[in-house]
Each structure stands twice: as C-alpha cells, then as structure tokens.
Amino acid sequence: MHRPPEALEAPDFTLPDVDGQPVRLRELRGKLVFLNFWATWCPPCRLEMPSMERLYQTFKETAFAMLAVSIDRQGVEAVKPFMQELQLTFPALLDEKSEVARQYGLRGLPTTYLIDPEGRLIGAAVGGRDWDRPEAKALIAGLLRQASGAAGDPALSPSLAGR
Fold it and tell me: What are the Cα distances from residue 89, in Å, to 6, 18, 85, 138?
C-alpha cells in the first residue's frame, strides 16, 4: 500500500450500483472507504475478490465502507452474475465509461484506494492483493481506531505491497 506524501481530497462521484441505485462517495464521509476498481475480465481482480469479501464481512459493522467499481462496458449484465457466482455481498458500482476511473488516474487493475473519514486519499495499491493477510486486517483496524480517536498511529504498512 502506497501512502501519498500528503493526503489529497478523493474526487467525489455518483455511480449506480448493480440494482440501479445511485451511490455517492461524499455520503460516506465519516467512514473509512475501501475503493476498489476492477473488471470481470481481469484475472487478478477475480483472485482478490474472495479475500475482499472476507475483509468486508470482518469490518462491515464498523465505520468501514467498501465500494467495488467495475469498469466493465457491459455493465450490470456482466457484473451482477459475476458477483452472484463468487457470492460477493459488498456494493458493486458501475463505471461503464470509465469516467470515475479516469478521475482517479487509474493505471492498472485492480487498483485499491483507502479514503479517510474526511474524504482524503490516504493509501493506494495497484495490482491484486491478499486481503486476508494479517497486515491488511491490522491496517484497516488501525485506521479505524485512529479515526475513532483511539490511541496509536497505524502507519500504512509497506508489507501490503506484496502479493
């Protein structure tokens, strides 16, 4: 996980989910947001999805939100069956024209951003990750503690850069 030299505001967006409901990033202020860009045709994306689901299940009852933004041009016709096949329950959003992906300067898939409760980009990872790793869970837990004002200064662990 790469930490930017200074926390920049995450570009706001509104995208439909697979049920057609609009989701706006700004409405998640107050939560730590795990923002993942992916596609159904991307093998590393497919590989990391089950561990993302487990991470989501671990933290979904906290001040944590996960958004998986698909850049599939086929939209819901490709994404909904994919989500069902892998039994993924986190919110999947549709960016069929890659407009939001361009706002974020996407350079590869999958790409994950962490956005703090104030809406600032605080971490980025390009490429598939194993979100089951203890370091990944410790990172999220530490950032949630920090956001709630608990003691400790969790640094974004460079060990998350590994696969």
Answer: 32, 11, 11, 22
The three-state secondary structure class of 24 is strand
Per-residue pLDDT at 2 exceeds 70: no
Cis geometry, peptide bond prior to residue 11 (ω within 30 degrees of 0) = no
> Distance between CA 27 and CA 162 in Å, rounded?
32
Task: List, in order of start, the domains of the chain with CATH numbers.
Answer: 37-149 (3.40.30.10)
The set of long-range contacts for 132-137, using a CB threshold of 8 Å and a minimum separation of 24, is 132/51, 132/54, 132/55, 133/159, 133/160, 135/159, 135/160, 136/55, 136/160, 137/55, 137/58
Which helix (H) or strand (E) covers residue 111, if one does?
strand 111-115
- Residue 131 CA to residue 141 CA, distance in Å, equals 13
pLDDT digit string, tens, across residues 68-112: 999 999 999 999 999 999 999 999 999 999 999 999 999 999 999
- Residue 144 backbone dihedrals phi, psi, to 5 degrees: -65, -40
pTM of the full predicted structure? 0.90
